[in-house]
Write a structure and sequence with these properties.
Structural class: alpha+beta
Oligomer: single chain
Distance between the termini: 34 Å
Number of helices: 13
Radius of gyration: 21 Å
Shape: globular
Largest sheet: 8 strands, antiparallel
Strand order of the largest sheet: 15-14-11-12-13-16-21-18
Length: 438
């Protein structure tokens, strides 16, 4: 592939540093823009930077957006759509695909309009109305905040009581503590089964390949503790199996009409009775993108260039399993500047081997050859591994972590165990995986 010019844009937090670094290491010309002042040091020493991405638009052959927000008035989907209309090759969404993540009610409407199975769900703008609904229809529910606070992960609550009494208690507590900011919420009937996300890359017209992966969002092993976004991922590439056909297979035309380009996933609960989509991520997943990079054995830059230009990438992927583990520092997943300053800011990331295989950037920088923690979030690196089996991938990833020294670092030690302990067998027995997956 000829050298191309890639412009990476983080219109809020710096989320796509590792992909920019990977493409840069492949020999392409790269410029990386980070909007958030507190994150602008992330990637220093690894990736060439720019402080004005708009001034680089004409320079760029490919423009890559990492998230869906730019302030409060305009989303990256709108920016990406405008640039595509100007003839630029862009990896990014559209206003409507941004809306899939911003508005869970809208996402459910899109699913239902395209005959995709959905979980029973109700939108409420009043806490008392939600409490009354649970009391009149007792069952376990999931509380999903809407609007301004929907990305405050700790507010998502998964009910455990059959009569919904714990959900009622939590809604009453939220009314007192968050009533001034939490203007609406979705109550979703809890479904038992295997949690699995189906992820695909879309080139504006069709899906390229599919990735099925399992998310681990709780802070501690055993799915205990606060929601974090994601602590790790276990993943494999698959064909267009039943999981895909019953979800994205029915949405392919809608995404083509939108002209969406990039990664998109849909998180589901699956059991012997069906597939129940819960929510969309119409952008890169984190740290999933690092795991996808790990498993793409052909050129990553060529893959995203083909995607942005509407071509079908000739991509070669690892035919096995991959594991990604987020290695974090205090006060993650919370915001506490004093704790961060005392324990984590500018901390050294020390490697006991020369190899950097499987080591991926999140909030890190390089100063005089030394890797250091950057930004203010306390999640400097992701460590990955791959193998013919999930256990082999686990062993490689955790062996790599054993060669890293960061005071106060922590991570989950059970990523991938759900697959080994039965989730894979259940999905296979229910007929969702199809040929080629063991």
């Amino acid at each position: 592939m000829d050298t191309e010019r890639f412009l990476f844009v983080s219109a809020d937090a710096a989320l796509i540093t590792d992909l920019a670094w990977q493409v840069h290491r492949e020999g392409h010309d790269v410029k990386y823009y980070i909007e958030a002042e507190s994150d602008q040091e992330i990637g220093d020493g690894f990736v060439p930077k720019t402080d004005d991405w708009r001034a680089e638009v004409e320079w760029a052959d490919v423009i890559v957006f990492d998230d869906i927000w730019v302030g409060s008035d305009i989303g990256t989907g709108e920016l990406a759509q405008e640039l595509r209309e100007q003839g630029k090759a862009v990896v990014g969404g559209t206003p409507n695909t941004d809306h899939l993540e911003e508005d869970r009610g809208y996402a459910m409407e899109v699913l239902e309009e395209h005959d995709v199975n959905t979980v029973e769900h109700h939108i409420f703008n009043d806490f008392d109305a939600g409490i009354q609904h649970v009391q009149e229809n007792p069952a376990p529910y999931v509380i999903k905040p809407l609007g301004e606070v929907q990305n405050v992960k700790r507010l998502l609550y998964v009910g455990n009581e059959d009569d919904g009494s714990d959900v009622v208690d939590v809604l009453r507590a939220y009314k007192k503590a968050w009533g001034h900011r939490m203007k609406g919420f979705q109550l979703q009937r809890k479904v038992q089964g295997v949690e699995v996300a189906i992820c695909g890359f879309f080139n504006g017209e069709e899906f390229i390949d599919q990735v099925n992966f399992f998310e681990h969002k709780k802070l501690f092993p055993g799915n205990i503790g606060p929601q974090t976004g994601e602590m790790g991922t276990s993943m494999f590439w698959a064909a267009q199996n039943k999981l895909f056909q019953e979800t994205f297979g029915k949405l392919e035309g809608w995404l083509a009409d939108e002209g969406y380009v990039g990664s998109i996933d849909i998180n589901c609960i699956v059991n012997e009775n069906g597939i129940y989509p819960l929510e969309f991520t119409p952008r890169f997943g984190y740290p999933t993108i690092t795991l996808q990079e790990e498993s793409i054995e052909s050129s990553t830059g060529e893959f995203f260039s083909d995607l942005a230009h509407g071509n079908e990438p000739d991509v070669k992927v690892h035919n096995g399993y991959q594991i990604g583990i987020r290695v974090v520092l205090p006060p993650f997943p919370f915001d506490d500047d004093k704790t961060y300053d005392e324990n984590s800011r500018n901390a050294a990331v020390v490697f006991e081997t020369e190899s950097r295989e499987g080591i991926h950037l999140e909030d890190a920088k390089k100063v005089d050859g030394q890797w250091r923690v950057a930004g203010g979030n306390g999640m400097p690196i992701v460590v990955t591994g791959k193998g013919d089996t999930m256990q082999a991938a686990r062993e490689q990833a955790y062996d790599r972590i054993d060669d890293i020294v960061m005071p106060n670092m922590y991570y989950r030690d059970d990523i991938g165990e759900r697959w080994i302990n039965g989730d894979g067998d259940r999905l296979q027995a229910w007929g969702y995986l199809g040929p080629g997956n063991e």
